[in-house]
Write a structure and sequence with these properties.
The chain is α+β, with helices and mostly antiparallel strands and 383 residues long. The protein is 27% helix and 22% strand. The relative contact order is 0.15.
């Protein structure tokens, strides 16, 4: 269902500030320089065989039978497992298969190590195609949404892979979801990453059926543009990379409306000037009431060589207009923000426009879980 928020409105998505710049693969640089790429790549263990995840899941009978069949390792590897103290590695690995076969994420709770528990829940969600079962990106910050790679695989939607946090995850996600996506593994910057990506694609090949969304070519990518003009006729600063929209937005459902975050609002000092070598960035948090009335709750403008400007501390006339906001994962979001942001030392006219997608939807119950004492309801109000 699409919502049209009127002349002023919404958008939100906590986004990562780790957008990695495209870099030439080490192998390409090696060919130009005339040396072996292996000489400059970090030394890592050989990639394990891919096997067939679907066959492993189908063959699962019990944790004990799985452990008995697989717990035969080289003594040297046994020494390493003893050294790191992971006494239940084989049991936990087999529990992942059991949880995936039963499609019951609660079986993951028996796993001792938190990273393996999270992995287990992701595997269950991806196998079952249940995006709501994907683990949170950060368990204590549900407003950031669920793990993007898990969402993309669970939804069988290759477009969503662009929300993953790094190049390896994005390529691996596309290789798993998209019928021809494995070709993207070869573009990664190291032989180790290429091999890992190809292994995951092969291992998941039979476990994830490619839907029409997964086999069709990706649609037009998310785009954002920022134009900033200073007072006194200062030449405008234009940037296509200042709005972090490629990873989509997280839509937060609240009792009184919705919230979206465009870009990434940073934590830090307001009076320290940004580096002259950094690019401009802009972010805004927008609340939209149930009646469609929009209010920019927070905004942040960072310009090279200038202290950050943050509303509501700084003077702001910024207003948002949302042309489209589809309340479904993968749904389209179109918005623009215009106005002046400034303080006693400088004022800047800002125009930001973005076309992106809804990466995840987080409901009020997840944002405001009941307190352990039971004294507060889902909206954190007294009962």
């Amino acid at each position: 269902m699409a919502i049209f928020c009127g002349s002023q409105a919404c958008d939100d998505r906590p986004s990562s500030s780790r957008g990695d710049a495209a870099a030439a693969p080490i192998a390409s640089l090696a060919r130009i320089a005339g040396f072996d790429a292996g000489e400059v790549e970090p030394t890592v263990d050989p990639t394990s065989s891919a096997g067939d995840l679907k066959a492993d899941i189908d063959a699962f009978i019990s944790v004990d039978a799985c452990v008995a069949a697989r717990a035969h390792v080289d003594p040297l590897v046994g020494d390493a497992l003893e050294a790191i103290g992971y006494d239940t590695l084989f049991q936990d690995t087999c529990r992942v298969l059991g949880a995936a076969k039963s499609r019951d994420p609660r079986l993951c709770d028996k796993i001792a190590v938190s990273a393996m528990r999270i992995h287990c829940r992701a595997v269950v969600a991806q196998i079952a195609g249940d995006a709501n079962a994907c683990p949170w990106l950060l368990p204590d910050k549900t407003a950031l949404g669920r793990d993007p790679m898990c969402l993309a695989i669970a939804l069988r939607d290759v477009r969503m892979c662009s929300a993953a946090s790094d190049a390896l995850s994005r390529a691996t996600c596309a290789a798993i979801v998209h019928a021809g996506g494995v070709a993207g593994c070869s573009s990664l910057g190291s032989h180790a990453d290429q091999a890992r990506c190809a292994r995951e694609a092969e291992r998941w090949r039979a476990a994830v059926e490619h839907s029409s969304a997964g086999t069709s070519p990706p649609e037009e990518p998310a785009v954002g543009k920022l134009v900033v003009e200073g007072a006194g006729g200062t030449a405008p600063i234009e940037s296509d990379s200042a709005l972090d929209v490629t990873r989509g937005v997280v839509l937060l459902e609240k009792p009184d409306g919705i919230r979206l975050v465009l870009g990434s609002i940073q934590d830090g000092s307001d009076f320290l000037a940004s580096s002259l070598h950094s690019g401009p960035t802009f972010a805004a948090q927008i609340d939209v009431s149930g009646r469609g009335e929009a209010r920019i709750d927070q905004a942040e403008l960072l310009l090279p060589g200038h202290p950050s400007l943050r509303a509501p501390i700084a003077h702001s006339t910024l207003k948002a207009k949302v042309e489209k906001c589809e309340r479904t994962r993968g749904g389209e979001v179109k918005l623009s923000i215009d106005g002046v942001l400034g303080d006693a030392s400088a004022s800047w006219r800002v125009h930001a426009a973005a076309t992106t997608f809804v990466r995840d939807i987080v409901n009020a119950a997840a944002l405001y879980p009941p307190s352990p004492s039971g004294d507060f309801g889902a909206d954190r109000g007294m009962r």
